[in-house]
């Protein structure tokens, strides 16, 4: 079982620009990028503008990773959520356990559940006001 801690940057429509910038400045390599339009269960109510925004991206920078996404159009990024911490595990149940522990005394922003990009994902702000994304990644 592995666990990684990764910074996660959420922007308002500028994630593609940031990916290019950090890739150039930090000699990063794009490992993956999915737009909202690439998501298999995307509602047909999504606008073309939203379909082109980044739902999830991962860059390799040296021996580390950086994750980025855009918030949906019209959804401002709340104070304290522009940069969050993503905890990645290769075991869904272990991810659920971490999520449940972090939510004690905190606030669930998105319940831990299957998502188009992960078999187990949730977003929680802990009792100290730190926001974590718990992400299961199956190799």
Can you give the mean pLDDT? 89
Please identify, by name, the CATH architecture: Roll
Largest sheet: 8 strands, mixed
Give the end-to-end Cα distance, rounded to a whole number of Å. Answer: 11 Å
The strands making up the biggest β-sheet line up spatially as: 2-3-4-1-5-8-7-6
Strand content: 35-45%
Total count of strands: 8
CATH class: Alpha Beta
Tally of separate helices? 3
CATH H-level name... which superfamily?
2,3-Dihydroxybiphenyl 1,2-Dioxygenase, domain 1
Unreliable parts: none
Radius of gyration: 15 Å
How many separate structural domains? 1
- SS-based class: alpha+beta
CATH topology: 2,3-Dihydroxybiphenyl 1,2-Dioxygenase, domain 1
Give the fraction of residues assigned to helices: 10-25%
Task: Report on the architecture of this protein.
The structure is a single chain. The protein is of the alpha+beta class and about 140 residues long. The protein has one domain (about 5-135): 2,3-Dihydroxybiphenyl 1,2-Dioxygenase, domain 1 (Roll). The protein contains 3 helices and 8 strands. It has helices at about 15-25, 50, 90-105; strands spanning about 5-10, 30-35, 55-60, 65-70, 85-90, 105-115, 120-125, 130-135. Strands 2-3-4-1-5-8-7-6 form an 8-stranded mixed sheet, with helices on one face. Strand 6 (about 105-115) and strand 7 form a beta hairpin. The longest helix has 12 residues, at about 90-105. The radius of gyration is 15 Å and the shape is globular. The relative contact order is 0.21.
């Amino acid at each position: 079982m592995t666990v990684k801690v990764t910074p996660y940057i959420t922007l308002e429509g500028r994630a593609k620009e940031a990916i290019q910038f950090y890739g150039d400045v930090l000699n990063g390599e794009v490992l993956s990028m999915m737009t909202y339009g690439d998501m298999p269960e995307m509602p047909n109510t999504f606008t073309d503008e939203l379909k082109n925004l980044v739902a999830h991206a991962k860059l390799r920078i040296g021996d580390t990773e950086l994750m980025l996404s855009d918030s949906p159009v019209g959804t401002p990024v709340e104070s304290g959520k522009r940069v969050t911490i993503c905890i990645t595990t290769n075991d869904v149940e272990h991810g659920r356990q971490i999520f449940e522990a972090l939510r004690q005394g905190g606030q669930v922003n998105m319940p831990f559940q299957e998502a188009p990009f992960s078999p187990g994902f949730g977003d929680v702000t802990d009792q100290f006001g730190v926001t974590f994304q718990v992400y299961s990644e199956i190799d």
